[in-house]
């Protein structure tokens, strides 16, 4: 029996996957999702390529995972495969193998370029309950008027102060009459910086500049990721990999090229 390191599996195809994290699965950490995904890939029978060495790893790369506790409709990863497969077949097999709460929304074959370089911003929706709309609008106005908003975050190396104002490109308020009159939605567009500014950092900033603190934590959902264009539009990061990227978008495809309501950074 050989005791030496194994050889790496050649990658003959790369698939780019957009998936959702919903319901209770929003509390799944990124590390936990990695384990779930690797089991699902085995159940789905996808020919995943592996690295070499004593502890081979599947050829999977992730782009900007959402923080634990946040839902998402726009998470991305790339799979390296040892054999070619129809992306549609891969999507069906992987979606069926994942537990409820994770959903494969799109799979395309990589046609060159770096996926991470196409993603520099996120659109989040924060659902706030039990709040006064006028108070929220006042807090958002104060946030957008500030030049700097330093907040503290606990990190691995201790507490660190970060300025949450510069990365926030858009922050708008919309009443959510579907649920109750005291519910609003905050649409947040934030550029990806290091360290990442998360929705809870923005809520901490609202509390700092205006003393705004909702009675319950907001439900944060990442609606889209992509390149933030000057128009305020988030471009679909998978569009360059599609065979027909110019096709018409249906109502179900609107996430792919989204203009957030209120494109001006000062819009409330």
Q: Could you explain how this protein is built, in words?
A:
By secondary structure, the chain is of the alpha+beta class. It folds into 2 domains: 13-117, Alpha-Beta Plaits (2-Layer Sandwich); 120-236, Alpha-Beta Plaits, CATH 3.30.70. The chain has helices at 30-44, 87-97, 133-145, 199-210, and strands at 13-21, 60-63, 71-81, 102-109, 121-128, 150-155, 158-163, 168-175, 184-191, 219-228, 233-235, 257-259. Helix 1 packs across helix 2 and helix 3 packs across helix 4 (199-210). The relative contact order is 0.17.
Oligomer: single chain
Tally of contiguous helical segments: 4
Tell me which CATH architecture of the largest domain applies here. 2-Layer Sandwich
Supply the number of structural domains.
Answer: 2
Write the layout of secondary structure elements.
Blueprint: E1 13-21, H1 30-44, E2 60-63, E3 71-81, H2 87-97, E4 102-109, E5 121-128, H3 133-145, E6 150-155, E7 158-163, E8 168-175, E9 184-191, H4 199-210, E10 219-228, E11 233-235, E12 257-259
Parallel strand pairs: 3-10
Antiparallel strand pairs: 1-3, 1-4, 2-3, 5-9, 5-10, 6-7, 8-9, 10-11, 11-12
What does this entry show, briefly?
With 268 residues, the protein is α+β, with helices and mostly antiparallel strands. It has four helices and twelve strands.
Task: Give short descriptive properties of this protein.
alpha+beta, single chain, Alpha-Beta Plaits, 31% strand, 12 strands, 268 residues, disordered C terminus, two-stranded antiparallel ribbon
């Amino acid at each position: 029996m050989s005791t030496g390191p194994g050889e790496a599996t050649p990658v003959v195809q790369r698939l780019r996957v957009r998936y959702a994290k919903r319901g209770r699965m929003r509390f799944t950490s990124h590390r936990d999702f990695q384990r779930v995904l690797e089991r699902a890939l085995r159940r789905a029978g996808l020919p995943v390529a592996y690295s070499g060495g004593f502890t081979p790893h599947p050829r999977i790369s992730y782009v900007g995972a959402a923080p634990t506790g946040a839902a998402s409709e726009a998470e991305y990863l790339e799979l390296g495969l040892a054999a070619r497969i129809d992306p549609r077949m891969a999507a069906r097999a992987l979606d069926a193998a994942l537990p409820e709460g994770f959903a494969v929304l799109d799979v395309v074959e990589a046609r060159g370029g770096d996926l991470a370089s196409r993603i520099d911003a996120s659109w989040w929706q924060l659902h706030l309950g039990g709040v006064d709309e006028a108070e929220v609008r006042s807090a958002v106005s104060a946030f957008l008027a500030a030049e700097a908003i330093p907040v503290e975050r606990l990190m691995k190396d201790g507490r660190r102060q970060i300025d949450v104002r510069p990365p926030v490109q858009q922050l708008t308020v919309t009443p959510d009459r579907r649920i109750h009159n005291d519910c609003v939605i905050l649409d947040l567009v934030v550029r990806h910086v290091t360290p990442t500014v998360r929705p809870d950092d923005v809520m901490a900033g609202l509390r700092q500049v205006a003393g705004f603190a909702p009675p319950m934590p907001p439900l944060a959902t990442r609606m889209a990721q992509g390149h933030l264009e000057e128009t305020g539009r988030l471009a679909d990061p998978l569009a360059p990999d599609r065979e027909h990227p110019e096709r018409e978008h249906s109502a179900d495809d609107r996430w792919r090229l989204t203009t957030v309501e209120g494109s001006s950074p000062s819009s409330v």
